[in-house]
Amino acid sequence: MITFVDLQAEYAEISQEIAQAIQRVLKRGWFILGGEGERFEEEFSKYVGAKYGIGVNSGSDALFLGLKAVGVGKGDEVITVSHTFISTADAIVRNGAKPVFVDIYPDTYCIDVSKIEEKITGRTKAILPVHLYGHPADMEPIMELARKYRLFVVEDACQAHGAEYKGKKVGSIGDLGCFSFYPIKNLGAYGDGGMVVTADEELAGKLRMLRNYGQPQKYHHDFVGVNSRLDEIQASILRVKLKHLDEWNGKRRRVAKLYDELLRNSHIIKPVEKEYAKHVYHLYVIRCKERDRLQQHLIANGIQTQIHYPIPVHRQKAYQGLAADTNLEITKRICHEILSLPMYPFLGKDEVKTIVQCAGNAISLCN
């Protein structure tokens, strides 16, 4: 069996460091909003290149609170993509605003910046680009549009820890950057976790209150907030893993390069890395018109795969009436073709060769 991810291999490499970090927290006896969280906020925001980091309990809440912090509310519109995990759009709707979807590029699967301006109205409050699968969105023209129309830019970097756009790490380019530390992410906790990063001191202060019941100090509530805090044990684990992130991203890139070299079948479209980008391959996503038969063949041969994502957000039952079924031709087409192959830092060369050979055999059977 070749698994889609292998968190046990990762743990085996750092198990002693993890045990020491957890013991440090247990001995201290302080589990919420303590020193581990503060240090991880400092270390991660420095790594990203932002001035402030605010730990929260998930990537979903990072997006939700990030939008709330910039003032997104009832009657507002936020421009984003439909080809993404549901949390992107969910954060907009939870704030009482409307998601306005634009199509994506057929090669990077990130937002098509040429289609953003036509969707801007007097109700538009923010643009929410997604750095999908670990590849950065094209941020420069997005920031130009934001300046032109006085919009906020909130980056969904939940799949892109360490990815770079023109030499700058994603998450540090817009007004806010939002990250998830879900266990299978490039930087994953052993549970849920998230963070918002920013260079804006006022936004950082507001986020710190929003995540903790709207409190500037205990029992003083300036506005309605939520309980969304990154706990000390998860922060200690993430501090350990952050030290290994660049090394692990490098291994992901080497696995992707091997896939690129070996996947030579004309029926398979491979992922790209634009000249402005450093891809960190949270996922290695191919396209194939015979996707379903290819996936079935791989599964039958003990190779796990996934589809990210089979149903666009605007086609989801939960979003009927919340977002128009707009002209998203690329989004509609690729959801029937995309397939995520196994991708993690400890995937071996022989395993990649087996996957590629099996995929090639499947394509032969399909034609």
By helix and strand content, what is the structural category?
Answer: alpha/beta
> What percent of the residues sit in helical stretches (DSSP H or I)?
25-40%
Nearest-angstrom radius of gyration? 21 Å
Shape field: globular
Secondary structure: number of strands: 12
Q: Order of helices and strands, N to C? A: HHEHEHEEHEEEEEHHHEEHHEH
For the biggest β-sheet, the strand order reads: 1-9-8-5-4-2-3
Low-confidence stretches: none
For the largest beta-sheet, the strand count, sense and barrel status come to:
7 strands, mixed
Strand fraction equals 5-15%
Mean pLDDT: 96
Distance between the termini: 26 Å
Number of helices: 11
Walk me through this protein's architecture.
The protein has about 375 residues and is an alpha/beta fold. About 40% of the residues lie in helices and about 15% in strands. It has helices at about 5-30, 35-50, 60-70, 85-95, 140-150, 200-210, 230-240, 245-260, 290-300, 330-335, 350-365; strands at about 50-55, 75-80, 100, 125, 150-155, 165, 170, 175-180, 195-200, 275-280, 285, 340. The strands form 3 sheets. A 7-stranded mixed β-sheet has the order 1-9-8-5-4-2-3, sandwiched between helices. Strands 7-6-10 form a 3-stranded antiparallel β-sheet, with no helix packed on it. The protein has a two-stranded antiparallel sheet with strand order 11-12. Helix 2 (about 35-50) runs parallel beside helix 7 (about 230-240), helix 3 (about 60-70) packs parallel to helix 4 (about 85-95) and helix 8 (about 245-260) packs parallel to helix 11 (about 350-365). The longest helix has 22 residues, at about 5-30. The chain is globular and about 65 Å long. The model has no long low-confidence stretch (mean pLDDT about 95).
